[in-house]
Amino acid sequence: MVLEKLGDSLKGTLQKIAKSVFVDEKLINELVKDIQRALLQSDVNVKLVFELTKKIKERALKEEVPSGLTKREHLVNIVYEELTNFLGGEKSELNITDKKPNKIMLIGLFGSGKTTTAGKLAKYYTKRGKKVALVGLDIHRPAAMDQIEQVGKQANVPVFLDRKVKDPVKIYKEFEKEYSKYDLIIVDTAGRDALSEDLIQELKTVYNTVKPDENLLVISADIGQAAQKQADTFHKSAGITGVMVTKMDGTAKGGGALSACAVTKAPIKFIGVGEKIGDLEHFNPQGFVGRLLGMGDIEALLEKAKEAVTEEEAKDMQAKLLKGEFTLVDLYSQMEAMKKMGSLGKIMEMIPGMGQLKLPKEALNVQQEKLKTWKHVMDSMNKKELEDPTIMDSSRIDRIAKGAGVSSSDVRELLKQYKQSKKLVKMLKGGADSPEKMMKKFKGKMPKGMKF
Known about the structure:
Elements: H1 4-19, H2 25-41, H3 46-62, H4 71-86, E1 102-107, H5 114-127, E2 132-136, H6 144-155, E3 159-160, H7 168-174, E4 184-188, H8 197-210, E5 214-220, H9 227-238, E6 242-246, H10 254-263, E7 268-272, E8 280-282, H11 285-292, H12 298-308, H13 311-323, H14 328-341, H15 344-348, H16 361-379, H17 383-387, H18 394-404, H19 408-430, H20 435-444
Parallel strand pairs: 1-4, 1-5, 2-3, 2-4, 5-6, 6-7
Antiparallel strand pairs: 7-8
C-alpha cells in the first residue's frame, strides 16, 4: 500500500478512539501525539505537523458535537477532514476539453520519472476513450528517445520523435500537422541535475512553442520535504499548473512529498503507485486519506471497476442478478474483472472497513494465486459444466483436476466458492432490501465527512 506505515499508524490511532470509554482531553492529547509521531516518521515537515495537530486539537476541544454523531465519530471526522485539507482538500481535475489536441507538457529534474509517467498518462486517457500521442523532446539524456518509444509501445500509442535533430522546438514543429488528429498529446521534456538557468530557458522556449493546456511538474516521492522547494522554484520559473508525484510505492518519504506539494498550492493531479503502465491514480485527497485511515475509497474503486468492466457487461450482470441467475461463467467474468482491477491488496484498501483488517501480505498473495488456479480449473471444464456445476460427479472432478494440473481439492474449493456466491445472488434477488436500501445502509457506515 502507498505509505503503508503511515496508514497503519493512523489506523491504530483510530482504534484507540474506538476502544476508549471517554473522549476527554487526555485522549485528545494522546491522539495528537500519535498523529504527530506518524507524520514525522513519514518525513512530513515538523512545522506543518504541529500546525495540523493544533487545528485538530482546537476543533476537538471546542466544537459542539453535531446531532446524530457520537463524540468518537465527531473526533474521527475531525481527523479525516483536517488531514484531507492538509493534502489539498478537493480533487483537482486536468483541463481536458473537446478541442483537438489538448496538450500536456511534463517537466522536472533527471530521475523524476517523466518519461515513464508520460506512458502511464497516455494509458490512463486511452482507457477513457481518448486518442493519445506522445512527443519526445528530451534531446540531452542518452537513450531518452528509445525509452519514450518503448513506453509508447506499452501504452499502445504513437510517438513523435526525431533522433537526428538536437533542437526540441524543431522536433515539436516537425510533426505539428499531425497533432490535430489526436484528442491529447503528451510532451516529454528534458531534465537536469538541478534547476539551472539553461533548463529554465529551454523550458520557457518549449512552453512558448507548445502552449500547453497543462504544464505538469513530475516529482519523485523519495525526495521527501525537498519537494516543496522544487515545486516552488519550478512554479515561479515555468508556471506549473499541477504536480505529479511518482514512486509513491514503498517510500516513507511520500508523506513529505505530498504535504510539501500541497503547501505550494500547486495541486497534485496524479500519483504513481507502482511500476506497471497502469499504476497511476488521479489524486483525490478525500479518497487518499480515507484509505490511510482504513475507511476506503469508493470513488477510486468505481473508477477501477469502470476500467475493468464495460457498461454493457455491468448491465448484463445486473439483469442476471435480478433474475437470480449466476453461473460459473459469471464467476469467471468477475474473476477476470478483478484481475484487471489490480491486486487484491489494492482493491481491499479501497473498500470501506476492509482497509482496517490486518491481513498479512502472504494471505493476500495466496488469494491471488487461488484466482489463477481457479481460472485453470474453469478452462478445463466444458460449457455445460460452467453453466451448471452441479452436474459434476467425483470422477469428473478428478478428471478436471488432472486436466488443469491441480488437485481435486482445488476444484472442490472453487465449487464451494460458487455455491456461496450463488447463495448471495439469491439473497440479493429475494431479500427484503432493495438495492437502494442496501446502498443507504452501506453509506450509513461511512464517516460523515466522506463523499459517496
